[in-house]
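In the current project phase, the collection of sequences with tokenised folds has grown. A sample record is quoted in full directly below:
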Amino acid sequence: MLVLLAAALVATVVGVVWLWPGGDGRATVAEAAGQVGMTTQRFAAEVESVREGPCSYSTADNPQNCRTVVFVPSDGPDVHTAVELPEFNLDQTGFVPDPAPGDRIIVGYEPSTGFYFYADVDRRATLWVLAGVFAVFVLVLGRFRGLRSLVSMVLTGLVLVGFVAPSILDGHEPLLVAVVAAAVIAFAGFYLTHGPAPETTIALAGTLGSLGLTLGISALFFGAARFTGVATEEGAILSFVSGGIDLSSLLLAGAMIGALGALDDVTITQAATVAELRRADPALPARRLIAAGLRVGRAHIASTINTLLLAYVGAAMPLLLLFAVSDQSWGMVANSELIAVEIARTLCGSMGLVASVPLTTALAAVLGGEGRPALAGDSPEARARDSSRRVLLRRARAEGGRRPASWDDFAPREDLDF
């Protein structure tokens, strides 16, 4: 297993060097988008005043009310100068911005025409506060392990933003880039978060093996379904400004990245479960370790599959509502590429998750070693107490037989020192 992991690591390093982005593709796509007016500048601004009244084009025969917003940009050509946005018609259906004086907003600016428009609410401060609360929450509960998980999460973001996106824009095969990025995230993330323990290595092996299976299944069914990748607005825009990207391969690449997160959870849990079972009873044979680990894994995998489905559906709630009111059968709705892609992602990813449970459990049971490894601070007396505890626990299990559990089973006992 270690030889195979070492070979995978070498292949990952070679892949990163080979696929490392030069930035030319990103610049070309940005230039093409700018030429057709698809990119604009964005500036933060503060709302100075908001007033409502008759529109400038309102007439006695056709009265209409409008909202006018005056803002002061914090950057750009009109920095610290009051600027008035175009009128928002209040009588028309659709979204109408409703800022208040003092609110922070984001405005778009078109340099060629000097035209400003409302882009969004400036919610960056809220996101920074949320990120800080999240970091404190993780550090308080996770302590040093939580800190390592935060570092791993930052590294994952850097890989996706700094390697995956620029490399694909440079014209490299999206699926190949995603596989290399997934391997980088797995190797770095596992050891950063969980440390260089045997359980981590076993979980990593189970993850990479399951990810390979997921890749094979997804490639087969994505190809059979003939997904184009242009069903979404983003895909259509990307195909327009950069014709060199294989959008169907990009869909498959996204499925691989999405499956990796769930595999991380399942495999590390299975490896840790088997390790704890072995430490509790070092004499337990591999066959019983696998059986016990699979019982835990089945419960875990059932909830994880449902989590994947809910995550995909929750991200597409507006689309789900639109299809619900359409005059189409559920079969026709599922046939739509927007929905079919999510179904394929969920089912293919779930098959990889299901396969990861027996694979990781078997690796942990067969390759995990016997017993808890001796710690540097263990003394002969501590090891003797640990052995006595195991003997007493086996005796208690033998005496208890298969009687129903009771609250007395969880009370302290004088013959056990824990």
Remarks:
- The CA atoms of residues 225 and 340 lie 8 Å apart.
- Confidence is low (pLDDT under 50) at residues 370-379.
- The beta strands are 41-54, 65-73, 83-84, 88-89, 104-110, 115-121.
